[in-house]
Design a protein that fits this description.
Blueprint: E1 10-14, E2 17-21, E3 25-31, E4 37-43, H1 59-83, H2 92-119, H3 128-150, H4 154-174, H5 181-184, H6 195-210, H7 218-227, H8 229-245, H9 250-266, H10 272-286
Helix pairs in contact: 1-2, 1-8, 2-3, 2-7, 3-6, 4-10, 6-8, 6-9
Length: about 300
């Protein structure tokens, strides 16, 4: 029987682990090289819940993006310290550098490159509407190609398996089932609230927003798109929230389909050991003194 009024549990795949986050706490479960599971639980309220302003529509999506980047970096750093041997552990500098590289990669690959490539067709694309549709198509194409390439890397596939375990654990919880591998096996690895679906919606929403920016010179065009990325992210967040709350409706199912299809690339079927890690993180994020929806007893 499906839980009524379940809270939004979010998660993230880590290095040999999973992070789960409820409205009141964050938990990271990571498997050590010796096979044991280390669970780290922290009382931590999401940034979007710390101020009424941060909870406003669109604003909460922008704040959530920043919060997710910071928390995600810390969680990855923690999992690297636990899961990797001394020789392969990452330093704080390594993680900060990785964050800057990730942001630079996102801006370069998914904002600057599509805009630059489309600008080469300026003389052939007289219509601004057609121009922005072409830019959006190139952006989505680059995004799909990027996912296709990294999904075939061995280490990334391992992370994607934990991504699948995270989704199965959340589905099992949301449907009111006991957290066991047998129950989790009934559910798919593709979840409508996944960040992958959000990224795809960012690509779609960007077509609408960028259409309002006109067609200035290439440099100004790229700069303007970078500056409005937070707005695009906030609007895409609201779209994901709306779809998740009405996911049983026909319209929501149809709109969610591309994002769910995309998760064929970003999730893999987990094994029992990986599900065990995801369950440990989920239980830790809920806590004994809270109900399954994170409210104090």
């Amino acid at each position: 029987m499906r839980r009524e009024g379940f809270c939004d549990i979010g998660g993230q795949a880590l290095i040999e682990g999973v992070m789960m986050r409820s409205p009141h706490r964050l938990a990271m479960a990571v498997r050590r090289p010796d096979g044991s599971i280390v669970l780290e639980v922290r009382e931590e309220v999401p940034l979007s819940r710390r101020s009424p302003f941060f909870a406003l529509p669109v604003i909460r999506g922008i704040v959530g993006l920043v919060d997710s980047l910071v928390v995600g970096l810390r969680a990855l750093s923690y999992s690297a310290q636990v899961a990797l041997d001394e020789e392969h552990r990452l330093t704080g500098f390594d993680m900060v550098l990785a964050l800057f590289l990730a942001v630079g990669l996102f801006v370069g690959l998914f904002v600057a490159l599509p805009t630059f490539l489309t600008s080469l067709l300026d003389r052939f694309l007289r219509s601004t509407v057609v121009y922005n549709l072409m830019e959006g198509a190139i952006r989505i194409g680059v995004f799909l190609l990027y996912l296709l390439v990294i999904s075939n890397l061995r280490d990334i596939r391992r992370v994607f398996e934990y991504h699948g375990a995270e989704h199965k654990a959340i589905f099992t919880f949301e449907e009111g089932e006991e957290l066991t591998p047998e129950n989790a096996a009934k559910f798919t690895t593709r979840h409508p609230r996944c960040g992958t679906s959000w990224l795809l919606l960012v690509m779609v929403v960007s077509v609408l927003i960028f259409s309002c920016l006109g067609r200035p010179g290439v440099f100004i065009r790229i700069l303007s798109r970078v500056l409005v990325v937070p707005l695009v992210a906030g609007l895409a967040y609201e779209a994901v929230k709306l779809l998740s709350h009405h996911r049983q409706s026909l319209v929501a199912r149809l709109v969610s389909l591309p994002g769910l299809w995309l998760q064929y690339l970003t999730t893999r079927e987990p094994d029992r050991d990986q599900l065990e890690v995801a369950f440990a993180a989920l239980r830790g994020s809920l806590g004994e003194e809270y109900t399954p929806c994170g409210e104090k007893r």
